Amino acid sequence: MDISHCTQTNNYFIVVINLCLLIQGQFYLPHVCFMTFDTVSIMSDPLNSNATIFICPSSCYTMQYLANQQEYPLFGNETYSGNSLICKSALHDGRIAPWQQDNSTLTISNRSSQSSTFISSLRNGILSGKLIGNPYFVYRFLNHRINETSIPDVAIEHRGYIYSQNQSSSITCRSKSNLYPIQSINMDHGWKYWKENRLKYFTIPRIYTRNQSLNFCLNNNGTLMYWANSTEQEILQSILLTTIHQLFHFQRTSLSNNTLTFFIGLKQINRIKRWESNAISYNESLGINLINDEDYCTIIQSDGFNAQSIRILDHKCDDTTIYGYSLCRLLPSVIDDGKNFIYRLEMDNQSKNLTGVIDFCSELGGYPIYANNAYEWQLIQEIMLNDSNFDSFYVYTGLISETKQVENAYWIPTNISYNSSLDFIQFATPRGSDRIGYHLSKADDESYYLLYDINPNSSLNKLRFCRKNDIQSLIKQSSSCNHKSCLSKCLNITLPSQSDDTRFGFYSCMPKNSLAGIVYTQSFPEQGDFIRPNLPMDYSVALRRNYNQPLILSFEQIDQDLRYSCYQYINFDTMSTLNDTIKLFCNESNTKNKTMNGISFKKDFNGLVSFSLEEKRMSGHHTRFIDYQLYDSRCQNQGIYYSYINKCICAPGFYGDQCQYSCPPGYYGQTCDFHCSGDDDYCKGLLICLPDPYGCSCYTGWYGTNCNISCPTGLYGPDCSYQCSCLDCNRFTGVCNCNGTECYQGN
């Protein structure tokens, strides 16, 4: 580029290092949140030689931190292993809470190494893992547990929790106290959320004139680079010195010149500074003063070696002899801060063709990597740049073009068309006519990763780059709920209709001042073909079953040619000699439904259970079972005793210290403060979930998968689990419908 006629700004960019801790590129938390008992340096307790002191900040309490058991492990229940996170263990054990002061002091009892079996346990909304084998150092907390004297009245009404994929469903959370927004819990460990690069920029290693660069940006919903303040200026400085400097390696080496020149949006019109496309108003405090007093446009230059050498230069806006690279930023009007780019990189167990890659990503709930626009392509470039596997491996994408023409290309299996008007993907030279698929790779002499065509039946390698949709951006939060006036606060989310299983998973409702009131609900596709790769589940919702009855579960067989064995996956909360995986037999009916029969559980079983088909990880149900005989002796009408606060959690439709009283028709809650609509069909079609260990059930008087079947004559209560003490009784309350002298023998 000829810049002999350009002038230079007098103020330079300055590098500023941000000392915040970035964990897995996902979210920022204090370093102390990730200390384990084994690795932390903690203060001795002067009053107890066998104890140590540790400080936990309440900021550790985030859903990602608590839900991720693979990267942030927890093993134990009251006694914890040395490789457990201290703050997470303290939350699990009820020793600290998020509404406490900024720092919570923990007193930890040190114990010597011992051979221990750490069973899994779900407490205070956190699940600890199962750990068996070698001796471990173990630890206990000496603090008193949080003194919660009552259950904050909180419940979830879930409409259509087993949903048809072309219909929406909703979750309503009710409480007498303030609530956090309803959150989906990401159950698939390994998925990462790209949240870096707040400038939302993109570029491409092609030299353009200024007008060509501007058109490239505009065609991709952006404009030439702009920044609002000195912080964003420093972020841009860092990007130019690191990421772009690496991605443009070929451009620098091929020209034997380390200088990179980019067009930016700053220009002066009528001696007034402004940003191209009027993206934002120019901030005079930036103090970018160029020598030229006339009207001009600008470029930015970086050589990557000297931080002080990054400089802004002006040039005549209509000068077509000046060439540089486009440096774009999304327009403010199209930026969606709530939408995440969700991806994962991992190795498969064997090399596979495109169909095998699609199946691999599908089993994780996603698709082979794809991009909808230039900004997403920029993210893909940076992710690949920062992963060492891409130094020697290629990776399949979902791009297909039967005619080898870009205008006919599309990403499979999402069936998203490749937008040929977005000039952002670089293709290598086309080869054979049978090469209708594309993979990403990087040759020795290239910078950006290019798309190379390939026969989709070719087995490439074991590296997998998958992406999935962001359900969070599709969920609609609302504080307006359709219910009668009662003493409750209400939040609602609507889960959109989807052609895939994006909204499958678990959702939480959390009061802002209690650990005892955390409630979970679940969302399952009606067809039963959703994917759960890592069994058993880390979270579950308790569904109440009698233990002397088998659990019957049906799968709809979509492909009549498929023949799979059935598997039952169990994660035991109690000691057992059984294996974690037990093979079952399937009966197949004429309707092509597979049914697993005769699954029974011993009296003291209280574990997480998932069902799957062999080879295809097609899960049909996930549940945590509640033992009636263990809990029901203390509480009436299917209430569950909660030892943490020494009280009964009453089934929907009942209240009292022992759940001995019936609520008015259509009301539920620990003091009957919640109401669901209906006349003689109160709460029909609702799965009602209460704090653990109660779990989920239908409202009293209903049963069935969708809670829409009336109790048969002679039965009453939630899920119609109780038998009337007379020939006929009210299906909601159990009170006998009296005929003559019949009531002398009943309630």
From TrEMBL:
Q: Which GO terms describe its biological process?
A: dendrite development; heterophilic cell-cell adhesion via plasma membrane cell adhesion molecules; neuron remodeling; positive regulation of neuron projection development
Q: Which GO terms describe its cellular component?
A: membrane
Q: Enumerate the Gene3D superfamilies for this protein.
A: LCCL-like domain, Tie2 ligand-binding domain superfamily
What keywords would UniProt list here? Disulfide bond, EGF-like domain, Membrane, Transmembrane, Transmembrane helix
Chain segments annotated as transmembrane? 12-29
Provide any one GO MF term from the record.
Answer: scavenger receptor activity
Which InterPro entries does the entry mention? CTDL_fold (IPR016187), EGF (IPR000742), LCCL (IPR004043), LCCL_sf (IPR036609), MEGF10/SREC1/2-like (IPR042635)
Tell me, what's a Pfam family for it? LCCL
Here the disulfide bonds are 650-659
Domain of life of the organism in this record? Answer: Eukaryota
Q: For the EGF-like domain, which residue ranges apply?
A: 625-660
Record's protein name: EGF-like domain-containing protein
Protein source organism: Rotaria socialis
